[in-house]
Amino acid sequence: MDDDGSVDWPALRAAATFAAEHAYCPYSGLAVGAAARCTDGRVVVGCNVENASYGVTLCAECTLVGELRMSGGGGLVAVSCRDGRGELVMPCGRCRQLLHEMGGPECLVDTPEEVLPVRRLLPHAFGTSS
């Protein structure tokens, strides 16, 4: 347990690093994995899947959300993204919006300095009330 008393950050980081091993990244060579703790306690993972048409590349967070929905739904509580060496990778802007949608503004995100709620990484996020 860590920060909020319910997130095992070392385990989440290890799961993200493991997920990166399954990435399909023949163009950039940057394997990325993401792992998240869900509201029901499950951990879901995803990896990036590149495409020759770069615009249709899927970030690790995108495939993680697909796994979230396919494995029972719910919401995200905490997310960590790592490369294949275990180094931190920050979510891009699109993925920050995706994390906000699936976890709400208080979804916790692993950052270089500290664990932060996604609302701090994406102030004034777009949503149904926007």
Automatic annotation (TrEMBL):
GO molecular function annotation: cytidine deaminase activity; identical protein binding; zinc ion binding
The entry's keywords: Hydrolase, Metal-binding, Zinc
Any GO BP annotation: pyrimidine-containing compound metabolic process
Family annotation (InterPro entries): APOBEC/CMP_deaminase_Zn-bd, CMP_dCMP_dom, Cyt/Deoxycyt_deaminase, Cytidine_deaminase-like
GO cellular component: cytosol
Residue ranges occupied by any CMP/dCMP-type deaminase domain in the UniProt entry: 7-129
Family to which the UniProt record says this protein belongs: Belongs to the cytidine and deoxycytidylate deaminase family.
This protein's name: Cytidine deaminase
Source species of the chain: Actinopolyspora mortivallis
Phylogenetic lineage: Bacteria, Bacillati, Actinomycetota, Actinomycetes, Actinopolysporales
